[in-house]
Input
Amino acid sequence: MGAILWGKSEEDVNTFAARLRIPACTGGLRPSKEHIVIPWKVEEYRGDCSLMLNAPSFVKRAGDRQAMERILGLWAIPHELTKSALYKVLIFQSEPLVLRKRQLWTASGGQEGTDSAERGRWTALELDHTRPLVRKLCRLAVKALYAAGLDYGEVGLHWNDKGEEAVTTIVPYPELTRSDQEKFIQAIQRFSDQLDVSAKVPDSFMIGADLEFVICRENGGIMMADRLFGKQGSIGSDSIWSRDRKMIYPLAEIRPKPGRTPEELVRSIRSTLLKAARKAPKPELIWKAGGMPQGRLELGGHLHFSGTQMNHFLMRALDNYAALPLILIEDETTSRRRPRFGFPGDVRWKSHGGFEYRTLPSWIVSPRAAKGVCALAYVIVHHYWKLQDRPLDQPETLRDYMEGHKSGLYSTVRSLWKQLEQTSTYKQYEHYLTPLKRQIFSKKSWNEQRDIRCTWMLPPYEPVTISTSPRGS
Output
């Protein structure tokens, strides 16, 4: 599998083609399953766009202010689409390439001000992600571009009336300086070079997770997890900021050893939970997982992948074929974690070269859920090029997802699940996936109030035998 550049005119294509090691074309295009199409300044196409970056329908929608206000609103992304930008971020596939700031000058000259924003010139800033402002601007811009359904473009940013960074523009095909062109071309080439690697999952592939739960007292209070488990290691804790701006550690977190298969990861999760239960054998406490099982504490079940390349096709496949089906079994309180947490496309790159998918709630509520999620993620990573439906890019589906309105999603999820069932890897893990499917379509939510030591049969409830055989919950 390779990439092909498609331009509206020869002039558009020639801007990039001479410096790219990929084929280019103009005019009519016949879609091919052998190529990922990278269009430039193409705003209309009626063929199959499933293997196309910046699909023309989303390019067109980006120019509709009312449509974009609705989308950004559903994502809870601050926006002021009538303001002029103070910063601009050029992005390709969630990678910030260039950050620019407008130098503002008053009519008298020399002084920075806001009266003559359109007269300022743009200056490139260093993309130093250790600086909080740079990190915040880039994360917001990347999130906005992904929310718009786009794969590359330029996002303009300013501050809204609340003093927050806010999106002002989303431009799919921005005007590029010579240096911008060079960085954009390098990003396209990197993407193209990775396609052959991405098309087949290598033997070095690993799947891992970090999984949070909260430890509750009988009176409803929270036991600080760091008092039981410390902070680091395979059994530790995660922090939040308290109301008085102090860092506290109420979230217990297990970091099991990753595996090459779902069976290995499930075995590692069970083993790590067992160690945690033996480390803190307190029957008077209740261990809760899920999305928001206690108060305002949001829990995550983050999946880690290495040995495979992250791109928007995989991100959207995980969103639509994993995150979307799973809300049909989440507890009623879980939807409250969105859109602050649990929004589509929440990904972070890791120092080991892999990536972390952070959208899902803590799915260790039961062995059934854990086995289903591990197998589901494994299937998606192995077959995502064939799993390219994007219902979450439609405002109605996105609203139902964000607000937890399950009734309108069953037919959509049933269609997605049928595609999963057509893959060879699904058949390999049918014994893990069938119980999850049955729970999804029986309209039964998982129970976030039940002690996970009970569902996993951990002490003090029952002696545990390390096994990956299916269990109910």
User: Anything to note?
Assistant: The chain has three domains: 1-54+173-199, 79-172, 206-455.
